Amino acid sequence: MKRVRQYLGVQGMVLALMGGAQALAETAPLFPEHQNCVAWKAKKTFFFVKKEEPVGVNCGIRIQRLSASPSHYQIQVEVPIDQFNSTEPKRDEEVRALLKEKDQAAIVFLSDAITAVDWPRYLQGQEKQLQGVLRLGGQAYPVTLQFGKDPQQEVLRGNLLLNLSSLGIEAPRMLAGVMVKVDDAVELLFQAQITSLEGKP
Asked: Fewer Cβ neighbours under 10 Å: the N or C end of the chain?
């Protein structure tokens, strides 16, 4: 587990160097305004020639602020696996199987505890990283999110770079009956309304 944390931590440092502006630019066109959403983004090659970057969007997620103690908060994000939409139903079905929906119906992210004093800095995007645990298929994986605040809206947007193999997932070689090569590296993009993190309904 320590090795996994170190590996994912390196990925997080790479994303931090890329800057929050890129995450804002990538997520803004993907998601409807005023909604909390996540999306997966992958790279695949058909018959070793044609390259694509499919995206599966999910705006059925639930984000809430939890009280870890009277002076500490945590962010919890629940992502129903069956609500990802890539516009290709067969692919969505195969993604649900890859994400081990039978073992755990929702992917859950739970952040490390944040002090009440530091909390406003996260909501305003002054902090650029958020560590926590990603629960998938009954297993927990330490991760680091990279994010920034939209300068025009009360929205936080960011991303998380992961390797399927680090999550115990083998990259598929066939999708919808077609031979493909899917990169081990995938990106999770997200958009969170700040009102969802202020302890308000």
From this structure: C
